[in-house]
Batch of 2 targets.
Target 1
Amino acid sequence: MYLVLSRGPAGVSLTELDDSGKISRGPDDVVDLAAEVAIRERASAASRWVWDDTSRWYPALLGAGVRVDRCIDLRLCRAILRNSSLTAASALATGAHDGWDEPTPEPRRGGDALFEVDEQPDDGALREFARQRAAVAATANPARIGLLLAAESAGALIAAEMRFAGLPWRTDVHDAMLSDLLGPRPAAEHRPVKMQAVLEAVRAALDSPTLNPDSPPELLGALGRAGLQVQSTRSWELQSIDHPAIAPLLEYKKMARLLSANGWNWLDTNVANGRFRPDYVPGGVVTGRWASKGGGGALQLPRQVRGAVVADPGWKLVVADAAQLEPRILAALSADRGMAEAGSAGDLYAGIVASGAVDTRAHAKVAMLGAMYGATSGESGRLLPRLARAYPRAIAFVEEAARAGERGEVVTTRLGRSSPRGASAGYDETATAADVTRARAEARSWGRFTRNFVVQGTAAEWALCWMAGLRGRLLGLGPARGDFTSGAHLVFFLHDEVVVHCPEDLAERVELELRAAAADAGRLLFGALPIEFPVTVAVVQDYGQAK
DNA sequence: TATTTAAGCGCC
DNA sequence: AAAGGGCGCTTAAATA
């Protein structure tokens, strides 16, 4: 059963649809939404809520203590169906762009989102849902893209729940780390003392007593006057230089980065009541990866500060990482048995070395990354032919994705998310040699994007399935269902890594569920294909102890 | 003065 | 080792 919610001038209305999509009841006005949703959730585990944006409905429900099992997020699904090559012929994909193609509207300030009367985008959720069902039903294998839509929507639920629960964050621990590395918190506009000391060492070594190292042009000038020929002030370029100024300069850069990105200021604005609540954006990246917005930089939390993520007393963090996810996804996508076999013993890169293709694990890793990103030069580019000889199917797969992109074609992930159409201009008979060169470079660049798109996008699908399955399994653990203060729940997600916060006595069970959910995800995407998705799990007190 | 762009660096 | 994919954020510099 589907339960379609919409907001109209008269308030919130609810329409029941049976599994065939036919209205079986309603629309009925809803007076107390949270109560209504809670009742329906208890009544039927098989129902699925249908709404425009999870981010507009679910936070208020969570605030009222209500969790939902399943939903369809119409806006996220529209974005997939609008672009997918599998639904290209549908009325939805061929029709004019409308409000459903627009980003989620910003919430109005001051209103109570749960009860606010709000306009639907263009036309109602019922009609949009019907269009989407028709588009899915007309595909050769509706279950394929149907799984993607369900996983994407589950991701939206998880994003809202993780924000609601928050990542446990110890301000005092973080502050101690900062004081230790930089010196105690200074007054505004001043540098911490340890940082200032390192800066003075740089200034002395460069004989530039007033140097502002935060200005790249100024720093470049100072380095030049000291006789150091560099193109930029990037750390990796400076690393190889032998000069007394370099060590303190690199140290200063490290400190400055920590201070500006995750210093006291970050702490003040992003951590409250012992929780960091990032604003995740499911589907925020074209490949299907999540993005994040607003302060915090949830997806760029440096390893340096992860020690401040500490489980509550009596609780543990279970940190799980899908080992070498993208290479395994490539092996599965291309059905390259040899590469799958290389990963079957645990460490895929070690398996590649064992097969004799390359001689060190580091080479295996850099060669694989190069294959997936489209490296042409350097170490990675040199190793590529060896990899291609050992694993012809896998390499041919990414090469074909690259060629398709260069031809201006769309590529599609395992479950049906398609790449955007390239804006490559090409050239005509009036083009100069420089125009031709530029156009070819653009085409190759787009080819690197499409090459990576299929792998990164399918990895994102795997991760969504993993996390959605895990969520269901965690909800089944114990009587604390729906309760973020006593039950195991997800608190962090980072592309191929999740963190679960749980009472100590549940940690072992959580670990089992994490592995089982990973195996499920592999089967969901790739069926009976013999490909392993091993998960590295660490049960820790603080996130810094993992890996 | 306000807004946009670029450099640099963090994550995968 | 530092070339190749996807992001967001902060600061300084450039532009309106």
Target 2
Amino acid sequence: MHDLSSFRQNLDAIALRLADRGFTVDTGTFRSLDTERRAAITEAEKLRADRNAQSQEIGKLSKSGADTTELRERVRQMGERMKELDQKAAELEANLQAMMASIPNVPHASVPTGKSADDNVEVRRWGTPPEFSFAPKAHWDLGPELGILDFERAAKITGARFVVYKGLGAKLERALISFMLDVHTQHHGYTEMLPPFIANKDSFYGTGQLPKFEADLFKLEGTDYYLIPTAEVPVTNYYRDETLDADKLPIQFCAYTPCFRSEAGSYGRDVRGIIRQHQFQKVELVKFAPPESSYDELESLTRDAEDILQRLGLPYRTVVLCTGDLGASSAKTYDIEVWLPGQNGYKEISSCSNFEAFQARRAAIRTKSGKKSEFAHTLNGSALAVGRTWVAIVENYQQADGSVVIPEALRPYMGTDVIRAG
RNA sequence: GGAGAGGUGGCUGAGUGGUCGAAAGCAGCGGUUUGCUAAACCGUCGUAGUGCCUUAAAGCGCUACCGGGGGUUCGAAUCCCCCCCUCUCCGCCA
């Protein structure tokens, strides 16, 4: 959500940059809505001020014993007219709000201009994709062969896009979660959190999933609750409607949660394997930062995510998303893509974003130093998507005999150095 | 799920129809005093919208906000209705 008065003041410049996203701001409609709304507010408030003054007069008069019948009737009529004006103002307000809620964030100056994912720019690359003396398999073959993934029975239990991890497969997922949380809490300065996996409407509004993206969510029938699609929702909303002491920033949280996504509109994409599921596990990093240093925090957050891949010895590259590929709330996003032999290419495993004050304004997360109060900047990034990390390990560390070697760093968590069939 | 108590500014807490954006205390901020610390004293101290003024900030007004929504009334923190949340007891339960 944009700040209304600065949006109004910088309308043309903002509209120009939003055009780089492929978003057109209807500046004419905005201007007229904005002007009408303010006129309605002014009119209604003037009448209300008048009524308040008259009401007080009634109070004084009746105390002194004077007859106020006539005055009362006049004020009552003012009240009726007030109701009409209030209603008109409320309607205009709602229209303007609806318009503002649909306008995406302004990309940061450092974000490259482009139309689609093809225009994203690689900023660095780490590691070398493994060379195999045999034809490497994809995880959807390896998993069932090793007895560590079961798609058929998951489909029976629930349906498509669900999976059962089994045996060392389940343990690998659990080991990755513990490993990631330990690295972030012990080496990167994050505080671990275990939040609710269900959140209410206000929280989803605060981080921007509502009202626009309701179709992507699972709603709990008969309630205002939704299953979270990412820990970003509960963890960012942890401080909704609060003012944070500027001295305490940045605040850094990490959280493991399952994530639930309806994946409406992704039919036919990543249908094989566990790349795209209705439920997946993720460790998320969330930061609350002072505006002046939020871009430094984005850099370190991205490095924190990359560190997990380095420790696991998984080759990856980091790209900065271009204006056309940027999420609506984000001002700048890095995607980290891990090498997957099964796809013979790099696949997104993390997305690290700075939302600047875009979420904080919706969620009313402020920071205060001395007398000055302003909106904090919020950031988040996956570190990492656990299921896709699982895939990366199984595919990158597969051996000619069909077994999977466990990377050094994970062995204490796995209690074994290899996964074999049987 | 049942019974009861309660939700007021950063915190504690007064306030049952007009003089209440709201006493008082604490914390914060500015200052005086002080060798330092502590203490004392004086002042200041909510958020948002909107109008005027302004390059802007500041300033000066107005409006709204006492958990949320609706109602009664000329006028609501205060009365009525619905909802949410917290606490205590009971029931159920991992």
